[in-house]
Write a structure and sequence with these properties.
Chain lengths: 346, 346
């Protein structure tokens, strides 16, 4: 069945998603009866285009690479230059993919995009942490009222399944605690410090050189990024409504020395930056801090720039999932699986 | 919506499933619109009962505990003493749960049960390795012809999601390789040998004492159990049609000494009994053997009587899932999630 899609934000993730649509075209049609029709794209830097009859996706991707703009893509009946909100309002689409940049303070422009799409009854897939962190309950209620589906697998651990895992594979379970390694950059640094005896400044410099850490590494090394994900998990999975400032603790790895790591190693332990959340006496207890884990702990073996989460459940015991926490194809895949699962449920 | 269920086999797994139905009754109804109606039970040792109006499940479980039989459960309009195949033929049910004992040589009586259910258009959930190992393709074809659903999450790693993970969370991915720790008993023994310097005979004796290993431990320690799961993964996930005898290698852990483990530890490595399968030049390469893994390998940190699998994919990178490989509630849950997902798709 044909599904009309608009793409809001056409950066790395949006392009990753389009590449997967091209690469898996035949499988999507043959196995899932899914035929995507890209009817509109809006991007802050690259302009916008609305084509009711749909665009040829491989040609569109080629055009993007060659010209770095979308508005001059040759397509009959195209409307160009609409701003993103107007494009959403004008478009006749089944699904909006929202992959604009994350603004964790305002949640904009993503939140307005998502609301506009729901108002029109469109289903929405996003990887944007902003709206999920700030407006999750409100957006869910609006989606429900408008009978629209809402998916956001990619906001935690990119395409490594978390929310779909709970929804389709662990449904019925009561989730008692969630605990994990939610920041690949700091896990990479701790691994280098332990395995190669690298100092903290050297490990940080290497992470920056490899593109894992930003020039200002505060969000990673002080635990803010991991905490944002803990807050999302607390609210989405445990039904809380907490803000980052409600966390019991937020300690990063900048205080961890090679000496600490050496000592832990002698005790058969290993430092990991662990984010965790659970409900105690009706209250969410969320934290991010370096924890010394026994080597036998499922999270102790998680090495390098990867993520992992352990769900403690009442029926299935402890279930741990480990995988990439970032990447063009990986995050593009998060959108792909959201769109596909919405297609299956529409 | 009411779903009529018959339960063939009422041992540990069948009772675990019924206990979950009782424990989660309200959630199943409120969240998923799922109302189970148990209309028949057949068990080799405990007899059979068919009650078209359905049985009170909590009372039925109490009766089982008190009397160890099913045929004398007081219910109006009950037909008792039918053999399992006749019960399947007589029953008016939507779903058959097949959890009889596994006979890996013949696949019976489970295979006949499943065929009879499909012939009547019933959907089937099973945890029985026999039919999946021996008759997977044939059963899938029959199910498709009869428009019936077929689920078997519990045949590998009990309720830890494998097949649902691929179906709902990693769909569209090309699975290039599957590699994992598929036998909890041997992993428990290796962990004891490494962490507590326990000899192989002592570790085996402890595993037997704790009920992990059988009196004749051959199936576990020589890798036959892990290989059976590798064969299932090869056929179900990679589309192969291999038998255990087609495996490239099957080596167990009985040749591993404390000295081997000590040496590996000195090298920063750890022995694990690893089952793996991949396609090379159109041919399945399946094996089970002890492998020395770097401590940073995702499978190296898997300690104790648990299982873990790594899927190497083309879009999502390496995804590893770890969890219990056995247990009453855990395997009962495998049936629960299969039944629930079939209900969602019916």
């Amino acid at each position: 069945m044909q599904r009309k899609i608009i793409l809001i934000g056409c950066g790395v993730v949006g392009q990753g998603f389009l590449e997967i649509l091209v690469k898996k075209k035949e499988l999507l049609d043959a196995k899932f009866g899914f035929e995507p029709l890209l009817v509109g794209v809006a991007d802050m830097r690259m302009g916008s285009i609305l084509v009711p009859e749909g665009m040829d996706i491989p040609k569109f991707l080629e055009h993007l690479k060659a010209h770095g703009t979308v508005h001059d893509f040759p397509a009959e009946g195209a409307t160009i230059g609409l701003n993103s909100l107007d494009l959403i309002k004008e478009a006749d689409a089944d699904i909006m993919v929202e992959v604009t940049f994350t603004d964790i303070k305002t949640g904009e422009p993503a939140t307005s995009h998502i609301k506009a799409a729901f108002e029109k009854g469109m289903c929405v897939a996003t990887t944007n942490k902003g709206p999920i962190t700030l407006h999750f309950k409100e957006l869910c209620q609006l989606a429900q009222r408008k009978n629209a589906l809402f998916r956001y697998e990619g906001v935690v651990m990119s395409g490594t399944p978390i929310f779909d895992l709970l929804e389709y594979c662990l449904a019925v379970n009561d989730i008692k605690e969630i605990k994990g390694i939610l920041n690949g950059t700091t896990n990479f640094m701790l691994t280098k410090m332990e395995e190669e005896n690298m100092s903290y400044p050297d490990a940080l410099a290497l992470a920056q050189k490899l593109g894992y850490a930003e020039a200002d590494p505060t969000a990673d090394v002080e635990g803010f990024d991991a905490l944002a994900k803990v807050v999302i998990l607390s609210n989405v999975v445990l039904g809380g409504s907490i803000k980052p400032s409600d966390a019991a603790e937020r300690v990063g790895i900048s205080g961890i020395t090679l000496e600490d790591i050496r000592k832990a190693k002698e005790e058969g332990m290993r430092y990991k930056l662990v984010g965790s959340t659970r409900i105690e006496h009706g209250k969410i207890i969320a934290s991010v801090k370096p924890v010394k884990l026994a080597l036998s702990h499922p999270l102790a073996g998680v090495s390098g720039a990867v993520n992992a989460l352990t769900f403690t459940t009442d029926l299935s015991g402890d279930i741990t999932i480990q995988g990439p926490g970032a990447g063009k194809l990986e995050t593009g895949f998060a959108i792909m699986i959201d769109v596909l699962n919405m297609h299956r449920e529409m």
